[in-house]
Amino acid sequence: MRKIIHIDMDCYYAAVEMRENPALKNVPIAVGGDTERGVLCTSNYLARQYGVRSAMSSRKAKLLCPELQIIPMQMALYKSISNQIREIFQQYTDLIEPLSLDEAYLDVTECTLFNGSATLIAQDILTEIFKQTGLTASAGVSVNKFIAKVASDFNKPNGMCVVPPHKVIEFVQKLPVKAIPGVGKVMQQKLKDFGIENCIDLEPFTLLELEQKFGKMGVSLFNRVRGIDEREVCNHRESKSTSVETTFEHDIKIEQVNAELLDKLSIRLHTRLAKENKPITKLQVKLKFDDFVSKTKETQHGHFNLDLCHEMLVELAKQRPIHKIRLIGIGVGYGKEAIQQLQLFEQA
């Protein structure tokens, strides 16, 4: 079960401007072009009370709110603070997927801070953001990207919404279909023509029916209304390792880690390695015990060796002899040195 956090800064550009100029805090402001054909990027919450929204023309915004102050963008400043926030994220996980300067997904499944509590991790991130930047953010916490993103909007500003695994279906059933990514105004109307306005209205339809009616979008609709989203948090960085894991239905002893079990893991790993095509420099193994404590071990090695992985797993298990095993992982690491040597070899 993954632990995904979606962090969304509160009216980010406007919040930065209010931080830089405290005199703006109690007046309606927006950030964007203050011309006849200008468009707004965002507005503060006071301006939103008048109906002022992002992507609205400056002309219309001023008609709705004559006192509105429109501030020109300072993109270099927004980027600088965004980088500062990214550094805060990196204190908790390397799996960070930025969506824009002011929002990102974080996969904290492997984070051991606060005993692995994604709720407490998210709260600590919000606290650190405010402490270091003076800005507030909101967070959604759940088992996948879809639920986390929707949840982050529930308790804005400066709030958090947690959707635990057993509450996912109940949470989704209460959503309008427009909450599903990809459901814009055109798709909303198509769904409405079939009597579908809320996610719960989609449940009686089979996968085949939805696929026939809406194509690929039908598959997404079928999955989302069941709280399913298999998309991984992707940080777009060159991977430094490749690994596979398996979590057991019932905790096992190290003696039960046999050739059949390891062969299955090895097959999965080799499938992934075929896509990477990088020189191996390390072997890595991982055990998670019945008390959720994780232990890892790695050794320098130039190719994948399943027997050596098994030996490393046994050595790890000996560190905690009274505990059974909940999860096993095996993998390989890559090194820059080896990549450079391979490139030189290929050039020669």
Question: How does this structure look, described?
Answer:
This protein is α+β, with helices and mostly antiparallel strands. The strands form 3 sheets. A 5-stranded mixed sheet has the order 5-6-1-7-8. A 4-stranded antiparallel sheet has the order 9-12-10-11. It has a 3-stranded mixed sheet with strand order 3-2-4. The longest helix has 18 residues, at 259-276. The two termini are 47 Å apart. β10 (280-289) and β11 form a beta hairpin. Helices cover 38% and strands 22% of the residues.
> What structural class should be given to the helix and strand makeup?
alpha+beta
Percent strand = 15-25%
The level of helicity is 25-40%
Number of helices: 13
SSE succession: EHEEHHEHEEHEHEHHHHEHEEHEH
Rg is 25 Å
Major sheet: arrangement of strands: 5-6-1-7-8
Distance between the termini: 47 Å
Low-confidence parts: 337-348
- Residue-averaged pLDDT, rounded? 88
Shape: globular
| Number of beta strands | 12
Outline:
The chain is α+β, with helices and mostly antiparallel strands.
